Amino acid sequence: MTEMNENPLDLLPEVLLAASAVLGLLLGSWLPRARQWAVGLLACVACVAGLAAASVAAADPATTAFGEAFAIDPVTSTSRIVVLGGTLLVLGVSFGPLRGDPRESEFYVLVQLAALGALMMAGTQDLLLLAAGYLLASIPAYTLAGFRKDGPGTEAALKYYVIGALLGVLMLTGITVLYATGRGTGYPMLGDAFRDAPKVLVATGAIGLLAGVLFKAGGVPAHFWVPDAVQGSNPPVAALLTTIPKIGALAALFRLGDAVFADSTLPWPALIAVLAAASMTLGNLGAFFQQDVKRLLAYSTISQVGYLLMPVAVAGRSDLAQQALLYYLAAYAVTNLGAFAVVCALPHAHTLDDYQGLAKQRPLLAASLVICLLGLVGTPPTAVFLGKLEVFSAAFDGGYAWLAVLAAANTVASLFYYLRWILPAVSRGGSGMPADGDRAARVTAYAAAAISLGLGLAGGPVLNVLAGSISH
Asked: Closest by alpha carbon to 77, among 311, 395, 330, 448?
């Protein structure tokens, strides 16, 4: 029988984020409007402290907390570092546009709660805790999508909420069916129970569960909300929606494939492989002729989910799957947030043509944009390049060579729409690009581009760290 470990310090990064959110609500009620930025500063401090705690915990052997409900292993530790680091970048691009807003403190609190939900999804080993993490990651995000209370923001929030509520109900239905089939909600127990369980029940529950998790990841067929929600929300929220929830959702999918469905009667790897192929292909097709930069990045993030699902498909079948997923998650998060930081730094540039002459007005910002967009393609020496090599290798090693070939073809095709943005930005013609903008967002863009390059150059040691075993 597993010893019950109820030490809250095992969840110190999550506790720090939750405490900061609660304290931020209290401070926001008393601080004058001109000093609401203090709540954002508190959020940054909580993220930095959480990063330190997660780094310390990462050096310890893999273990579980609260029985076997929450795992502290390389998947959780990497997700903590990526989510908290990504939240810092989101906060960095938020200070400028939110400064003096009547609900500034509420924004920072909602960002922290959404990040906390992603952390819970990443570390959970229990279906009920997964459902709680799903709700915690979703409800603050619905509010953030409509934070501006204008027409596009309201439409974005409504579409996001309706699809999320529908797929959330399907997820809870799937969890109910899986509970009835396996007589439990813990992953280790379910993994043993599903070996001889009726195939129809396992398949029904898994599809319902997959619908909800794919919604948070933004993958096909639960991707319909992504373009409208990203385009209608303000740029800092769009950056969060396309990055932070995906980390928790994909880590959760990896655990499900490795611990729950690996030995079941369900063809889980083939199902995830098909969804990966559909996501990368449909995302690329949707991005080809987009003119709005946020909508282009929205379709780009759907295609990136396809690549990220490749190591999920071979979880338990390839020794390369875990390090490939975790490294690509980190590489994608910093690169995508860097591209959105450029969008946040130029609040009046909405279409590709609006970036005409950016290199002339803001050469460092243009360089950051080029690094991040070429990074999303997978150009050396950026981190995504090594990440794609790893996921391709994992797919080959796991017996899905056709998926790796399709991913390589999609990578080449994606260069087309990223170049449609890069070419006007680096062209010498045009001088209509405004020289003003948000300074904090510019600094964030520079930092993200530098981290993307640095992570790519230091890929070898990082991959070795990510190769540890996960808890069961």
From this structure: 330
